[in-house]
Amino acid sequence: MSLSANTREFIGNLHPSNLRYLFYLVSANETSYYSVEEVPDFITKVSGWFLILLLLEFVVIWIKGHKEGFAYNDTVTSISAGLFQQLLKIGGKTSSLACYIYIYDNYRLVTMPVDWTFTWIVAFFLQDFAYYLGHRAIHEAGIFWSFHQMHHSSEYYNLSTALRQGAVQEIGIAFFDCLQSFIVPPPMFLTHKLLNTVYQFWIHTEMIPSLGPLELVFNTPSHHRVHHGRNPYCIDRNYGGTLIIWDRLFGTFTSERENEKPVYGLVENVKSFNQLWLQFFEFKALGWDKGRLKGRGGNPLFPGIVNKLKAIFFPAGYFPGIRTYQFFLWRTKWNTAEAIPRIEKNVVKYNPHLSAQLKCYTLVQFVVLVFEYYSFIKACSSITTN
């Protein structure tokens, strides 16, 4: 029986050479392209490895008897969120690309050849710094948290959590992507944006301990576990993509505590696996509900237009009396742990029972969805930016 073209391509992408993309183990020469159409979809190239490593991690978790390491319904929700996000990208690339190209073509300050190693290095650092700024903004700039909170909504921390992405998150960080467009050629920007994204997959695990001296420079599983924690010391920390140096420079770095391991999820967990609700509920919560909250005496916590705008655009955890300061284009809390509740003594994760029949039904649907997704992505790859 002959295999379909999509199946053959999927199997072909499991070549060991594609595995190194997960760790940014590439050279400047091999990842320098003259047009955005030439840039491979690195996410699709490693997606088979995503699946294999995810399954391998589950086997290790099961062997170790770590029953709280994953849940079926949570995993399906996370992977579905990743598929949802990828389907909304233009031509399988990124939603900011068209705007980026326009700015670069009309307003760039310098023209850097794409075949220079120096250009590759500059693009690497600028993309990682832009990611730090954008990532920090969608955590701290009020309503922009709505674009990203989906990624933090899982109470589990495993490789499937890496795929649990906000469907419209790209819109929330498009401005920061385009900051590079005055200098970095579009093919180089797209290359590093995709590789930066791919790198962040493997750091979503509890299976890898501290990596010693590498922790000083690179973002690692230990650093990113802190970022996903809802413990007071974890809130708004470790925003780095590939590098952790920006957090160290701007005071947002915190080490993982051996005596207080991160507990994952949102400060107030949603307790739902409804994909659309998880993706979009926070827009209403921050954009409308928060500004209309009342205190014990019935008086509004955010009276007047100015205060209601603060409710929308100040940090998600901001309430009157909490001190903030200006960082770049937004306000951030002086003390990120302020008003954050301590972790409950007996943590109970949301994991409603599913019957064997329902698990089989959803699994069949899910497998069909994944195969249809690959067919759709293949068709999208032919879409150009022209």
From TrEMBL:
InterPro entries: Fatty_acid_hydroxylase, Sterol_desaturase/TMEM195. It is a multi-pass membrane protein. GO terms for molecular function: glyceryl-ether monooxygenase activity; iron ion binding. Keywords: Lipid metabolism, Membrane, Oxidoreductase, Transmembrane, Transmembrane helix. GO terms for biological process: lipid biosynthetic process; membrane lipid metabolic process. It holds the Pfam family FA_hydroxylase. It is found in: Endomembrane system. It comes from the Eukaryota. GO terms for cellular component: endoplasmic reticulum; membrane. Residues 120-252 form the Fatty acid hydroxylase domain. This is Fatty acid hydroxylase domain-containing protein. The lineage of its organism: Eukaryota, Metazoa, Ecdysozoa, Nematoda, Chromadorea.
